[in-house]
Amino acid sequence: MSLPTDNPEPSKRVSITKAQLHEGAASELLALLEEITADGKVSSDEAKALSAWLSASEATGIPGILYLRGILEHVLSDGILSADEHKAVYDAIEKILPIELRREARERRKLALATEKMRITSIKEAQRAEAERQRPFLDLDLMVAGSSHGNRQKVIREEVQVNQQIILHREPDNPYDCNAIMVLLPSGSDIGYISRGDAEDLAPLLDGGRLYKGYIKKVHPGSTANIPVVVIQVFSPEAGVEGVRPAGQRRFQAAQVAAKGAGCGGCLIVLALPVMAIIHLLAK
User: Fold this and answer.
1) Topology of 138-254 in CATH?
2) Which of 10, 143, 211, 284 sits a CA distance of 20 to 30 A from 35?
3) Based on the number of CB atoms within 10 Å of its own CB, is 232 exposed (0-12), middle (13-18) or buried (19 or more)?
4) Looking at residue 3, what DSSP letter applies?
5) pLDDT, tens digit, for every residue of 114-141?
6) What does the radius of gyration of the chain's CA atoms come to, in whole angstroms?
7) Strand, helix or coil for residue 261
8) How do beta strands 248-249 and 167-170 pair?
9) Is 4 helix (H, G, I), strand (E, B) or coil?
10) CB-CB contact of 229 with 219 (8 Å)
């Protein structure tokens, strides 16, 4: 901020002298300025109170009072003190103080500025941490697998809508893939599964407590079946994002299935045996 044109930088000494301290006004001003600079900064209320005191004491003719009053009239003309105007007022106060007190006021201001800088840095770091906490850990855009099986095409035609929420259910006991993740609509109708490759990445995150939100992006018209395309975002458990949820879990539903394989993702031999065949085998 520039100083007012009718109050240029003082051409003569404006600091309070020892001789002036014997005058009541100078002594009062010194006490007031020490109180104001005690925390190393000037508040708007302090500036207004100081301006009122200076106006009442102008008749004393003390150079420091006249100089400081001109500065305050200028910066308070719009009723708002900007950061630059606060600095200008503090600079002017330092010029009024005796040399030994001026050094102390300057050190207090340096400390106040450093403290404020640390406060702002802390706020920015907290904001960055919050933004990171709310950022998706994983962002998937994928086609739903198995959408042509059973009555899923009927469900897709009649129920699926763009931007519709989806619900994920893990099936850790699925004999075909222990990472299996079924995709459901809010109605409970299933429209397929997350593909094996994507499920391999997604399942451990969901099992570990990560939260997700997902929706239907579009329905891709395939040559033999309509395939839903979904967006799934995965967040940390502490995420404050609206609409996130943990994955549900359901047991794999299959009748008369005997599974034998080499673990998750391994090659499975699935046998659907008639009841009489099973009895015959048990009898041997």
Assistant:
1) Alpha-Beta Plaits (3.30.70)
2) 10
3) buried
4) P
5) 999 999 999 999 999 888 888 898 999 9
6) 38
7) strand
8) parallel
9) coil
10) yes
List the beta bridge partners of residue 259: 270
Give the other-Cβ count within 10 Å of 224's Cβ.
Answer: 7
pLDDT bin (cut points 50, 70, 90) of residue 78 is: confident
- Tokens linked to 210: 């990560």
Of 181, 241, 226, whose CA–CA distance to 207 is shortest?
181
- Rounded distance between C-alpha atoms, residue 232 and residue 181, angstroms: 12
What does residue 192 show for φ and ψ, rounded to 5 degrees? 140, -160
Q: In one letter, which amino acid is 115?
A: T
Give the end-to-end CA distance of the chain in Å, rounded to a whole number: 100
Strand order in the sheet with 190-193: 190-193, 181-184, 167-170, 248-249
**Which structure tokens are listed for 256?**
């008369």
Query: Are 181 and 203 a contacting pair, CB within 8 Å?
Result: yes
How far apart are the C-alpha atoms of 132 and 115, rounded to whole Å? Answer: 26
Domain range list for the chain: 20-130, 138-254
- Mutual angle of helices 24-36 and 44-56, in 10-degree steps: 180
pLDDT digits (tens, 9 = 90+) for 135-177: 898 999 999 999 999 999 999 999 999 999 999 999 999 999 9
